Amino acid sequence: MKTIIEPFKIKSVEPIRFTTKEERIKILEEAGYNPFMIRADDVLIDLLTDSGTSAMSSDQWAGIMKGDESYAGAKSFFRFESAVRNITGDKFIIPTHQGRAAEKIIFSVLGGQGKYFVSNTLFDTTRANIEFSGAEGVDLLVEVGKHPEQKAPFKGNIDIEALEAFIKKTGRENIPLVIITVTNNSGGGQPVSMQNIKEAKAVCSKYDIPMFLDACRFAENAYFIKQREKGYENKSILEICREMFSYADGSTMSAKKDALVNIGGWLSMNDENLALQCRNLLIVTEGFATYGGLAGRDLEAIAQGLEEVVDEHYLQYRIRSTAYLGEKLVSYGIPIIEPPGGHAIYLDAKRFLPDIPAHQYPGQAIVGELYIEGGIRACEIGSVMFGKVDKEGKFIPSMMELVRLAIPRRVYTQSHVDYVIEVIQEVYNKRSKIKGVEIVYEAPMLRHFTAKFKPLS
Fold first, then answer.
1. What are the Cα distances from residue 170, in Å, to 107, 159, 165, 173, 207?
2. What is the CATH topology of the domain spanning 58-309?
3. Cα-based distances in Å from 354 to 365, 370, 432
4. What are phi and psi of 10, to 5 degrees?
5. Which residues, in sequence order, are CB contacts of 256 under 8 Å at separation 6+?
6. Does pLDDT of 1 surpass 80?
7. d(CA 299, CA 83)
8. CB–CB of 325/403 below 8 Å?
9. Which of 371, 368, 366 is CA-nearest to residue 19?
10. Residues with Cβ < 8 Å from 29, sequence gap 6 or more?
11. Of 41, 2, 49, 51, which is closest to residue 367 (Cα–Cα)?
């Protein structure tokens, strides 16, 4: 097989400011050892997130110039609505300024004390919006997905038996919604099979519980289905996407991922009464129903991005680029979640730093070292993000201790990725000298965004 090349040419470039190791040590200290508090200009390779960091196409930029900025009924909304409906098939399409706004609306309407929202794995803002409503989020990931070293084609699946058992135990009246995250971000960017989506829907239908997709990376998930699930190898990406959404009653979406834009999202559904309640809340918090907190130019860019993201050449390049990074790291003995996911590589901090316990946050320690060694900004997805303390004050660690290296779409070249590999190697080679960290400040919710740390001596 020939080298898989980027299916695009570069038309505009953004310079990178280089820093020295000594400068980065000082910068990290001033940032409280939290990568979210580092200025972007002080970062060489930014792998903090793939959200809103895509490079847009020339057609998207052209669409921005055509954006209709009418307050109500803008033609850009109707192009956006048509593009979303073309993929989801849903009747009611509600624009929002990003995915967490869609989450805030749906969980405000459906949530509350005594309610449970069940998922394969909820991501941070999803869980926070659930808990903010007074409800509780429950993760029911399949067992193989909890073991980074084990290989399986669909490690992002929800545990079907556990789902039905939880419904029976809790009572369907206390479960307003089941949410399937595709791909499973907190579970290592791992895909969910079509069979699993169908089985989850069958259980939900049996107990009359609606099922939504958290669809941020729906196209990447569809590509994995095409590559790994029997019967889909000859189907187009768009056909696979439409089938995925056909089993769902609605979706939340951060368009900052697989719609290839820097801002935007949506909430879609088929329930007219629920849509009315959500639109009323949208108008109070986001904006009128045909712009939802976005400019018309943003709606145009999303519509165009949804056409581009289902292109198989783009997805082949996207998934293969991520796999290249993962395969190189594995060849050097560096532990990651295997097989590589779609949007990111996840270092397994438990195996990377086996002598640092969860309460000393090994993932956060690695994040700091990656920045010092090479100016790479990454994100801890472990006990900083998901760890808790119970009513007795006992520390409850995250299921996994991970470091996410999220790859922005259409931004970095192979030489950038090769540099990342070299830096990770250097950090791994000196892993015996790395110390854990402790939290010296944290917010009551979503603490990883603003927490401050200090290294343990």
1. 18, 16, 9, 8, 12
2. Aspartate Aminotransferase; domain 2 (3.40.640)
3. 12, 17, 10
4. -90, 125
5. 51, 52, 53, 54, 98, 99, 216, 262, 263, 264, 265
6. no
7. 10
8. no
9. 371
10. none
11. 49
225: CB partners within 8 A, 6+ apart: 191, 193, 194, 232, 240, 244
Give which of 400, 395, 394 is closest to 380, Cα–Cα.
Answer: 400
**Amino acid sitting at position 110:** L
Rg from Cα positions in the chain: 21
Can you list the pairs that 225-231 forms with residues at least 24 positions away whose Cβ atoms lie under 8 Å?
225/191, 225/193, 225/194, 227/319, 228/153, 228/154, 228/191, 228/193, 229/153, 229/154, 229/193, 229/194, 229/195
CA dihedral defined by 101, 102, 105, 110, rounded to 10 degrees?
-140
Q: At what angle do helices 124-132 and 99-110 cross, to 10 degrees?
A: 30
On whether the CB atoms of residues 296 and 303 are closer than 8 A, the answer is no
**Token representation of residue 70:** 């009418």
pLDDT digits (tens, 9 = 90+) for 62-114: 999 999 999 999 999 999 999 999 999 999 999 999 999 999 999 999 999 99
Distance set, CA 161 to CA 62, 191, 311, 357 (Å): 49, 19, 35, 32
Numbered ranges of CATH 3.40.640.10 in the chain: 58-309
DSSP state of 114: T
Q: Distance (Å, rounded) from C-alpha 164 to C-alpha 159? A: 9
Output the CATH code of domain 21-50+311-455: 3.90.1150.10
- DSSP string for residues in 198-226: HHHHHHHHHTT--EEEE-TTHHHHHHHHH
Between CA 324 and CA 282 the distance in angstroms is 41
Where does 332-398 have alpha helices with state H? 349-352, 362-374, 383-386
Residues of the chain with CATH 3.90.1150.10: 21-50+311-455
Structure confidence by residue, pLDDT tens digits, 240-278: 999 999 999 999 999 999 999 999 999 999 999 999 999
Return the amino acid letter for 276.
L
For residue 228, the tally of other CB atoms under 10 A from its CB is 15
11-42 residue pLDDT tens: 999 999 999 999 999 999 999 999 999 999 99
Q: What is the largest CA-CA distance in the chain?
A: 60
Q: In the predicted model, what is the mean pLDDT of the chain? A: 96
CA 402 to chain centre: 14
Residues shown for the chain: 457
Distance CA 66, CA 62 (A): 7
